[in-house]
From TrEMBL:
<feature type="region of interest" description="Disordered">
    <location>
        <begin position="551"/>
        <end position="577"/>
    </location>
</feature>
<dbReference type="GO" id="GO:0032021">
    <property type="term" value="C:NELF complex"/>
</dbReference>
<protein>
    <submittedName>
        <fullName>Negative elongation factor B</fullName>
    </submittedName>
</protein>
<dbReference type="GO" id="GO:0003746">
    <property type="term" value="F:translation elongation factor activity"/>
</dbReference>
<dbReference type="GO" id="GO:0034244">
    <property type="term" value="P:negative regulation of transcription elongation by RNA polymerase II"/>
</dbReference>
<keyword id="KW-0251">Elongation factor</keyword>
<dbReference type="Pfam" id="PF06209">
    <property type="entry name" value="COBRA1"/>
</dbReference>
<keyword id="KW-0648">Protein biosynthesis</keyword>
<dbReference type="InterPro" id="IPR010405">
    <property type="entry name" value="COBRA1"/>
</dbReference>
């Protein structure tokens, strides 16, 4: 409590104790101690007895004076940090720190010492080490001081950042597995600016400040974790962090990050959920502008493009372009904008391989993706238009051809072997589901059972699919639809992929009242958790079971068949006269 006072020649409690121990007249000793160490203001000597008459303890008086002086001192320190020439003001602060640092462990003085350190751009290394070695001091010091400690202690900075990164991933997963299923509000609904206001992004932004070294450390953590886990949410955080610093106009960092302008342009596309022609040209300019010897920047650009929000925007734009090409009778290979979208999709999907191999080279685009797969998707769009027009014709003019039910073998093969084709194919299926196109959905559904790296069973796709399926809620009453969806798709992976099990339970929690009772009963049995199932699955299953129990019709009461004969009313006999 009194640490450091002796070094400054100020008496403390221990001095008083020693004085009282060795004196013969304690009262005189106390009076002398008060005179020597009290507030040295002559006029105060007459005021103190007045306070005594009002029953105000001397401790309370001295404490209030001390608090007032400390506030004035804090204000003065902050003022010194802003006035005069840079060298002069920092010299004053350094001198003040030298005189006061010995009191840093004294709780009442500590805020002043910490304030002085906060305003020094470079705290003496010796003092930083003393702060770092003491847990309480480290915890009490301002983030400005911690930055100076962190920049030379990557492990300590990693310990501070790690819980935030875990929290960020958990928040993303909670959104994907939310029980609130809707096609209107989904994982991709919040705008980029809204997402950047999240707690983790804001905390990391504050921790980094204008320190380029700390920013580079965070990027290295994100790359390492992305490599270790393949979790694409780290790519989202990489982009969000850069744009958060951009919002604050931290030019010290933005100007040295070669991805800044590319990310800024892409961020605008994500906000609109579409890459227009003007921004497409800008993005292409950035990619084409990567100079020889600077290829390493492709690693960071690929990570920015691997962000699910970027992939979502690129894939939605691709589907929209394909629809436009159908109307224009134009082939995919003749559209430069479409080829650029595929180039960026390819770069984003190849991020992990590029960073892992450290071979910074754009992945080669397979010609068949453009010449065979995309025309195949366009043929599906034509099938839909043809069928829709046919249905609108008068009955005598209708063609006899029903909606196509078979899938071209090439489509299934592309979905299994080509990552970009698979991603675009999945987004096309999401598109037709959102259009309430049951025929097209049931036609292509079997192709989802086996896809490249099981992408059809990824959390993001299943999150979007379950949301879009709410638009087809009335179809869940049909046996054929439920059998195709559940038995033909979902249940093929439930036993080996717990995340699929969770998404099916989420869907049924939302739409169980639409499913036929017999089918619902069989699904309940099929989805019963095993001993190996996680707590999340068991919790969802219990919720579903409780809902089903509540919706069970109560047993019909057995009532007697009412008699068809009506009782004759009694007629009173006329009174005799």
């Amino acid at each position: 409590m009194y640490a450091g006072l002796q070094e400054l020649g100020v008496a403390n409690g221990e001095d008083l104790k020693e004085t009282l121990t060795n004196c013969t007249e304690p009262l005189k000793a106390i009076e002398q101690f008060q005179t020597e160490n009290g507030v040295l203001l002559p006029s105060l000597q007459y005021a103190l007895p007045f306070l005594d008459l009002h029953g105000t303890p001397r401790l309370e008086f001295h404490q209030s004076v001390f608090d007032e002086l400390r506030e004035k001192l804090l204000e003065r320190v902050s003022a010194i940090a802003l006035e005069g020439k840079v060298e002069e003001r920092y010299k004053k602060l350094e001198d003040l720190l030298e005189k006061s640092f010995s009191l840093v462990k004294m709780p009442s003085i500590q805020p002043v010492v910490m304030c002085v350190m906060k305003h020094l751009p470079k705290v003496p290394e010796k003092k930083l080490k003393l702060v770092m070695a003491d847990k309480d001091l480290y915890k009490a010091c301002a983030v400005e001081v911690k930055r100076q400690i962190w920049q030379d202690n990557q492990a300590l900075f990693g310990d501070e950042v790690s819980p935030l990164l875990k929290q960020y991933i958990l928040e993303k997963e909670n959104i994907l597995f939310s029980n609130d299923i809707s096609f209107l509000q989904n994982f991709f609904s919040p705008s980029p600016k809204t997402r950047r206001q999240g707690e983790v992004v804001q905390k990391l932004t504050q921790m980094i400040g204008k320190n380029v070294k700390l920013y580079d450390m965070v990027l290295q953590f994100l790359r390492t974790l992305f490599l270790r886990t393949r979790n694409v949410h780290y790519c989202t955080l990489r982009a969000e962090l850069l744009m958060s610093l951009h919002d604050l106009e931290i030019s010290d960092i933005c100007t040295v990050d070669p991805c800044h302008k590319f990310t800024w342009c892409l961020d605008a596309c994500i906000r609109e959920k579409f890459v227009d022609n003007k921004r497409a040209r800008e993005l292409q300019g950035f990619l084409d502008g990567v100079k020889k010897g600077q290829e390493q920047v492709l690693g960071d650009l690929s990570m920015i493009l691997c962000d699910p929000f970027a992939i979502n925007t690129l894939a939605l734009s691709t589907i929209r372009h394909l629809q436009d090409l159908v109307g224009q009778d134009t082939l995919p290979r003749e559209s430069p904008d479409l080829l650029l979208l595929l180039r960026m999709l390819s770069l984003g999907q190849g991020a992990w391989d590029m960073i892992d191999s450290q071979v910074f080279k754009e992945p080669k685009m397979e010609a068949e993706l453009i010449t065979r797969f995309l025309p195949l998707l366009m043929s599906f769009v034509v099938d839909d238009h043809t069928f829709t027009v046919d249905q609108k014709l008068p009955s005598e003019e209708k063609g006899p051809i029903p909606y196509p039910s078979t899938i071209p073998e090439a489509f299934t093969k592309f979905m299994q072997e080509n990552r970009i084709a698979c991603e675009i194919g999945l987004y096309y299926i999401l598109h037709i589901t959102k259009q309430r196109n049951k025929n097209a959905f049931l036609r292509l559904l079997p192709a989802l059972v086996e896809t490249f790296s099981d992408l059809a069973f990824s959390d993001i796709f299943l999150h979007l699919l379950t949301g879009n399926l709410t638009l087809l809620s009335d179809e869940f009453a049909l046996e054929e639809f439920c059998t195709s969806l559940f038995d033909g798709f979902f249940l093929t992976a439930c036993s080996r992929k717990e995340n699929v099990h969770r998404h099916v339970l989420r869907l049924l929690l939302h739409l169980h009242h639409k499913v036929a009772p017999a089918k619902l009963e069989s699904l309940q049995k099929a989805l019963e958790p095993t001993k190996q199932s996680g707590e999340a699955v068991k919790e969802l299953y219990n919720q579903l079971s409780e809902k089903l129990e509540l919706h069970k019709p109560s047993p019909a009461e057995v009532t007697e068949t009412p008699s068809m004969e009506l009782p004759l009313p009694t007629v009173p006999t006329p009174a005799s006269r």
